[in-house]
Amino acid sequence: MYDARLAKTLPPSARVGFTVMDAWLAYAPVKDNPEDAAKLSKCFCGVQGKPSSAPPVVLGQVLLGTHMNCPYGILVDLLDRLIIIRTQTYDVADMIKILALRANVEDLVIDDESLAYLGDMGLQASLRHAVQLLSPSSIMAKMNGRDNICKADIEEVKALYMDAKSSARLLQAQQEKYIS
C-alpha cells in the first residue's frame, strides 16, 4: 500500500518524462532509492490547454516497477488533487429542460407537445440530435407561415436528417451496396 510519509518530490533530473507547463509541476513519490527515480522517468502526464484557474486534466500515469494498490489505479497524493465528477444519463424531464433552455437561447417559440416529442427523440437517438433539430424546425415553421414550432415541423425535419445511430444501422443493413 502507498505510504504518504515515504513520498518525496521528484528531483529535476527525474522530470524528463513529464510535461510541465509554467508553474504546474507533476509530483510522484520517490523512495530513497536512486533506481526508483530512474523508473519514474517512464511516467507521463499532460495538461490540457494552457495553465489557468481550472484544474489540470491528467491524461495518464505509469509507474513501472512499483507495486502499490491505489484506488482507481491513481496515486493517493494525485487523487487528492483531482476533481471526480459523477455522470449519469439524462431522463426525459432533464432533456426537456435542456431543450427548452436551448430554444430560449435561440429565441425560438416551441410548444410543450413539441418539447416532449423532442425529449423522446433525445432518448431514442441522442440529445445532440434533438438539439440540432431545433434550428431547422424553426426554419420549417417560418416557411409554413408560423412563428412557433409545432410537432409537424419537427417530424418533417426529422425525415430530412438522420441521427448517427440510425445511419449506422442503415449502413450495416445495406453494406453489400457499398465498396469496402
UniProtKB/TrEMBL annotation:
Gene Ontology molecular functions: ATP binding; DNA helicase activity; hydrolase activity
Localization in the cell: Nucleus
Catalytic reactions of this protein: ATP + H2O = ADP + phosphate + H(+)
Keywords: ATP-binding, Helicase, Hydrolase, Nucleotide-binding, Nucleus, Transcription, Transcription regulation
Top EC category: hydrolase
Residue span, RuvB-like AAA-lid domain: 98-163
Annotated InterPro entries: P-loop_NTPase, RuvB-like, RuvB-like_C
Single GO cellular component term: nucleus
Coiled-coil annotated residue ranges, if any: none
Listed EC numbers: 3.6.4.12
Domain of life (superkingdom): Eukaryota
Protein family (similarity comment): Belongs to the RuvB family.
PANTHER family: RUVB-RELATED REPTIN AND PONTIN (PTHR11093)
Name of the protein: RuvB-like helicase
